[in-house]
Amino acid sequence: MVEKEMNQEQENKKSVDNEAQNQIKAEIKKPLFGSTLDELTALVLELGLPKFTAKQLADWLYKKEISSIEEMSNLSKKAREQLSEKYELGLKPSVKVQESKDGTKKYLFPTDSGKYIETAMIPDKNRKTVCVSSQIGCKMGCLFCMTGKQGFNGQLTAGEIVNQVRMIDEFSSITNIVYMGMGEPFDNLDEVLKSTEILTAEWGYAMSPRRITVSSIGIVPALKRFLNESNCNLAISVHTPFEEQRQQLMPVQLAYPLHEVLDEIRSFDFDNQRKISFEYIVFGGLNDSPEHVKEMARIFNGIKCRVNLIRFHPIPGTPLQQTDESRLQQFKDALNSKGILTIIRSSRGQDIFAACGLLSTKGL
Amino acid sequence: MQNELSIKSGSHFLFRNKVEGQIEVAEGKFLLTFEKQFELKAGHVVALTSGADIAPRIYSLCCGENEQYMQILYDLKPEGQLTPLLSTLKTGSYIYVSKPYGSFMPEKEMPMWWIATGTGIAPFRSMLQTGYKPQILLHGARVKDNFYFEREFKTALKAAYIQCYSGNEGVGDFFGRVSKYLEQKEQLPHDNKYYLCGRALMVVEVRDLLISKGIPYENIISEIFF
């Protein structure tokens, strides 16, 4: 009897909890920002609004600077009210900005899930490059990366990715976007592809896909999709041409070996404009030998590519070392002499932990 | 039923293979047994799928080198493509499996520590069944039922098998995660090999911890689930 009463009590509590949850769900408005034109079309039709309203919405979201649905002045009052009932604009300002002595800025953005992500803005002569995050944390566990040390805390939506471009102070003067911030973009490919669509579509920000680079460690099934469904540039993190050594640095090598990644790239028909680059962090005494140069020449054979050498920025708990400048220069020259176009990427924002491999929101 | 004798996926050839049995060892965790078509080494992995239309995934084998069958231990991911299908397989069904391969292999005569969480215990069961024994096996779990093969490890390793329990049922030999156990350990032997298998966060955390305690990086061998 007592047990029965307790069960009834639990049932009642469950029903109250469900009601409360449904109420909360109804009160949480969905963000419009981050929707593609197709999604906006489906949304306006569902609300019984004319189809052309979708294009008007895209204009307000991606061509104009507004801060509320109420400001969408070419929509009827009724349409704005209908939209406001279920939706919000969805733009999120940064909550913190740090500036490096070299002009690089690091922005901290909140996410819908109550966590934080970092975005870097790197000015360089006539360029302003935004380095966006695609995930909160990362699952890949690369030995040299700070982001991996916080583990994986969730995926970003397309809106949260594009918000990092839209809500920085330099938005109007951005020239390039790189997906090299926190996370592995190919582990969140649906949202990454949606975000590049918004950035490049005529109804969106209409940026050239040649100014956008998505960087990955090379998850092969996602790589195939990306090559077929996007026109953006591709960067692959290589870090050593020797597969056994790569597995020590990048555990993903076991699941997606480098030769499979390169085979996939080799089999794809690139046009002359789309760029492929290989990212290579140079570790002192580990991957900067003449044997590495020879092997890189062998494995990159037949791929029109560029190699970006990156200085290693030491992080706590890693046995890896920086290489010295003269050795780095020699390594670059040796690769160039083998016919591999190679540059040394300058290190920026190191003093504010905005440089390559240093982004992390673990302490927040 | 799958008809092709072999399929190619990436650089892997996967061969048609008959399922010999499947049991749910804990809620949503399955032990799949299938034909042994190739020799294996303890610590090896295979690429495995249910058919040509689904991309294979990599699984650690969890059976010894001399067993007459092969086994994997997997976690059903309801939102995934492969494991919901695998979980419905019956004896006599077909799957596709690559030749075993990998580098997460024990070195003979070398003292080892094995550190695993959840289904990351799989390669260590393979090692144990093959005849290897560690100085210590740390197995972390949040649910009591997830100390898979508990009896086998307890019988073979006795006090060297340490369950690190981070749930709230009051079981296990140590209360807390494997990283907490290692953190509290004042001295760790520097000349042992440390084998880590599990999710990225555990592997990265333990890897950093071991390095901070002076273990040379070349003595840390890790395998991460993706």
Structure characterization notes:
The complex is a heterodimer of chains A (364) and B (226). With 364 residues, chain A is α/β, with parallel strands linked by helices. Chain A has two domains: 2-88, Orthogonal Bundle (DNA polymerase, domain 1); 96-352, TIM Barrel (Alpha-Beta Barrel). Helix content of chain A is 35%, strand content 18%. Chain A has a ten-stranded mixed sheet with strand order 3-4-5-6-9-10-11-12-13-14, covered by helices on one side. A two-stranded parallel ribbon of chain A has the order 1-2. In chain A, strands 7-8 form a two-stranded antiparallel sheet. Chain B has 226 residues and is of the alpha/beta class. Chain B folds into two domains: 6-98, Translation factors (Elongation Factor Tu (Ef-tu), domain 3, Beta Barrel), CATH 2.40.30.10; 112-224, Nucleotide-binding domain of ferredoxin-NADP reductase (FNR) module (Rossmann fold), CATH 3.40.50. Chain B has five helices and 13 strands. Chain B has helices at residues 83-86, 122-130, 150-157, 178-184, 200-212; strands spanning 6-9, 12-26, 29-35, 45-49, 57-60, 69-75, 94-98, 112-117, 136-141, 161-165, 174-175, 193-198, 220-224. In chain B, the strands form two sheets. In chain B, strands 1, 2, 3, 4, 5, 6 and 7 form a seven-stranded antiparallel sheet that branches. Chain B has a six-stranded parallel sheet with strand order 11-10-9-8-12-13. In chain B, β4 and β5 (57-60) form a beta hairpin. In chain B, α4 (178-184) packs parallel to α5. Chain B starts with 5 loop residues before the first strand and ends with a strand. The mean pLDDT of chain B is 92. Chains A and B meet through α9 of A and α5 and β13 of B.
